[in-house]
From TrEMBL:
Uppermost EC category: transferase
HAMAP family attached to this UniProt entry: Q_tRNA_Tgt
Membrane-crossing segments per the record: 420-437, 449-473, 485-509, 629-652, 682-699, 705-726, 738-763, 775-795, 807-828
Name listed for the protein in its UniProt record: Queuine tRNA-ribosyltransferase catalytic subunit 1
Region: RNA binding, residue numbers: 246-252, 270-274
Lineage: Eukaryota, Viridiplantae, Streptophyta, Embryophyta, Tracheophyta
Residues noted as binding Zn(2+) in the record, renumbered to the chain: C303, C305, C308, H333
Subcellular location as annotated: Cytoplasm; Plastid, Chloroplast inner membrane
UniProt catalytic activity: guanosine(34) in tRNA + queuine = queuosine(34) in tRNA + guanine
Enzyme active site: D91 (proton acceptor), D265 (nucleophile)
Amino acid sequence: MALRFEVLGRFNRARAAQLTLPHFTCQTPLFMPVGTQGTIKGLTTDQLEEIGCQIILGNTYHLELRPGSQLIDDLGGLHKFMNWKRALLTDSGGFQMVSLLHLADITEEGVTFQSPVDGKPMLLTPEESIHIQNNIGADIIMALDDVVKTTITGPRIEEAMYRTLRWIDRCIAAHKKPDVQNLFGIVQGGLDPVLRDICVKGLVERNLPGYAIGGLAGGEDKDSFWRVVAQCTAGLPEDKPRYVMGVGYPLDIVVCSALGADMYDCVYPTRTARFGTALVPEGVLKLKQSVMATDERPIDPTCPCMVCKNYTRAYLHCLVTKDAMGSQLLSYHNLSFMMRLSRDLHMSILEGRFPEFVRGFLRMQFPKGDVPKWVRNAMVVAGIDIAECCTPAKCPRDAMDAPGTVKRICDCQAPAGAKLVPLLVSLTVGLAVRFLAPRPPEVSPQAWQLLSIFLSTIAGLVLGPLPVGAWAFLGLTAAVATHTLPFAAAFSAFTNEVIWLIVISFFFARGFVKTGLGDRIATYFVKWLGSSTLGLSYGLTISEAFIAPAMPSTTARAGGVFLPIIKSLSLSAGSKPNHPSSRKLGSYLVMSQFQAAGNSSALFLTAAAQNLLCLKLAEELGIIVANPWVAWFKAASLPAIASLLATPYLLYKIFPPETKDTPDAPALAAEKLKRMGPVTKNEWVMIGTMLLAVSLWVFGDAIGVSSVVAAMLGLSILLLLGVLDWDDCLNEKSAWDTFAWFAVLVGMAGQLTNLGIVSWMSICVAKLLESFSLSWPAAFCVLEASYFLIHYLFASQTGHVGALYSAFLAMHVAAGVPRALSALALAFNTNLFGALTHYSSGQAAVYFGGKFMST
Ligand SMILES: [Zn+2]
C-alpha cells in the first residue's frame, strides 16, 4: 500500500485528513480537476500549483490514444512527461469509452469498442486497463468497473455490481506496482441499498488502499444520491480515503463532505468556464449577460485569485464570447474557487467550526432560506443543525432548483407519468364493470362501485401504468372521492397489525445483512459440511432454513447472504460465472439454493413477507388461523422439511455438478471466520433480539404478546443499541412501498367482504363448480394448479398474492374445500412458485443475476 491516511479532525461523520501519496501530501476534503491529454485546458502546471491543486486527474483513454502509455512510460511516466510534481490519479478508461463511444459494449471479458482511429474492434480488459495505468504511473489508479446509469433499474444494475466485484480481483492480480501506485476499488450497485451493501462489503474484504463511490451524478434524484453516499461512507473503513466520483457542484461537495467523503472530481468547473460561467459564493455568475458589459467589479470581490485581482467583469464579458483567453481566465478562477472551498472544508473541520461553515455556505447560496429538501434531509443525517438557514420554500420547484448550476436538469421534473395503454386498459376494466355490466340485484350499488374500483386497482397492479404504490393510492383516492368508502374505512388497514409486522420484518432482514450475522452462520455450516459438493449444498440449505424464521425476506437472504458465499466458493473452486466452468460447481449450488429457498420460506410463517400477507387476506375473508405461527409450522413442517432434504440430492442427480469434492471449502470457510474475528457486539445483539422475537412469535399468544408487539420490541432493541439506525429503516424503500400498496389492497378487500361482494362471488363460483359436478378434492387440485401456473405471468410473489390470493381463496371455499386448508395451501403454493422461472421472484432475480446459470 503506497499511501498513508491520517484523520486529523472530525465533526460527526465529516473528517479532515492528511493523505500522503508517493508524489505529494494532500489535505482532504479535496477537489481534483480533470485533465484530458495530461493537461487542464489552458492552464500551465505552474498555475495549477499556484492555485493550490494537490491532485489532478489524467484521462487514461485519451492518454492511451495520444501519445500512448508505452511512450509515456519510456519518457519516465506522466509526472515527468507533463512536468507535474504533485499527485496524479488516472481513471480506468472504461467510463470514457462507454460515455463517448456509442459502439461500446460490455462483456465479462471487458469493454469492447470500435477504435476511433481505424474502426477496428478493440477490447479493454481489467488487466489491460491496469497495465496502461501502470505505464502512466499515477499515484492513484482506478479499477475497471462496469458502469451503468443510476437512472436505469432492474437486473442490469445487479449484473454490473457483481461484475465490478469480479473485475476487481482481476485488477488486483494484474497490478504490478502496488508499492508505488494505489489501486482504488469502485462501489457500484445503483440506487439499491442491498446491492451497494454487498459491493461495499466485497471491496472492503479485499483491503484496498482506498475506495470510490461510483455510478452517481448521472441524473438520479438528489435524495437518492446523498443516501447512497451516506450509506457507502458508513460502510467503508475509517482509515481509508473515500472518493465520490464525478461530483463537482460546490453544494454536492459540501454535503458529501458532511457525510464523510474525502475526494471529488468533475469537469464541471472548467467546462462551465468555457461557457462563460464563473463560480461565486452566491452560486454562479454568467459573464455573457449584457449587464456585465459595463460592470467594473472583479468576478468575486472576496476571491484572492490572480484573475479577480487583475480583471473586471466587463473585460471578461468581452473575452468570453470571442477569445480562448476568456475561458482560460475563467477556468483559473473557477478552479481557485474549488481549491478555496476544499481548504475551507478542511480547516473548518480541523478547527471545530464545521457546522458554522456549512451554515454560512448555505446562507450565501440560499439567501431566501430555500435550502433544498434533500440538503436538509442530508444534514439531519450529518448531524448539522441548519434550521436557521431554512425558511419554508415558496414552491417545491424553487426549492429543488439549486443554484450553482446553469443548465442543470431540474430535480423535481415530473417523471414521464402514467403509461398510456396500461392506464386506459386498467380504467376501462373498472368503468366497464361499473357502467356496462348489469348489477346483480343482491349486490348493493355501493358494493358494486367498490368492486369496479377494486378491479381497476388490481388491473393496474398487473399492468403497471404507475408503480404499484402510486396506483394503489389512486385507487384509494377514487374510493374516497366517489363516496364509495368513508375516509376512515378506506385507510383502516394502515393501522393493521400484520401489515406493520411485515414492515418491521424488512428491517430485521437488514440487520442480518448489516451485522454480517447471516454470512457468519452460513460460513459455519460450510466449515462443518463443505468438504464435498453435496455436503456444501446441504450446509447452505440447512443454514437457510436456520436463518429463515428470523430473517423474513427471501430476497435479502439470497442477495445479502447466500449468493456472495456461493460466488466465492465457486470462484475458489475454479467455477466462473458466464463461463463453461460454471457447470463445475456454481450453477449447481445456485440452483439448489434457489429451489431450497422456496421450501425454507414455506416452512415458517415469518420466513417471507408474502406468508403474512396471505394470512392477512384470509382473515379479511373471515378465515382466521388460530395461533398462526405454530399452526403454520405444524402444517408446513412435514412436506417442507422433506422437500428441503430432498432438493440438494435430487438436483445432484438430475443437474449434476462436474466437481464432486471440494476439499478446500472448509479450510477457506475457517479462514474467513478467522478474518471475521470474534462475534461482534452487534451480532450478539442481533442474535439475542432474534431469539426473543422468535420465542415471542411461538409462545407469545399464551402471555398476551402479539406477533407485532414482539417485532416492535425487537426493532426497538436494535435501534436503542445502535445495530440499526433510523436511516437504515428510512432507506428500506421496499418496506414502505409494500406497506403503502398492501394496506390499500387489504383495506379494499376487507370492505368488499363487509359489503357482501365476496359471499355473492362465492355463490356464483359454487354454482359454476356444481355445474361441472367436481368433488372438493378435485376442485382443490384444479384451483391450486391454476394458481401455480398463472405465476408464469407474474414477476413478483407479493404482486401475485395481492392480485389473486383472495379470489382463489374464495373459489376454494365455494368449492367446499376446508377453510384453513385452503388458506394455508395457497400460501405454501405462493412460496413454491417463487422458484418457477428466472423472473418469478426477487430471489430469482438475485440468483440468476449471479450468471452461473443461463436464462
Ligand atoms: Zn477569482
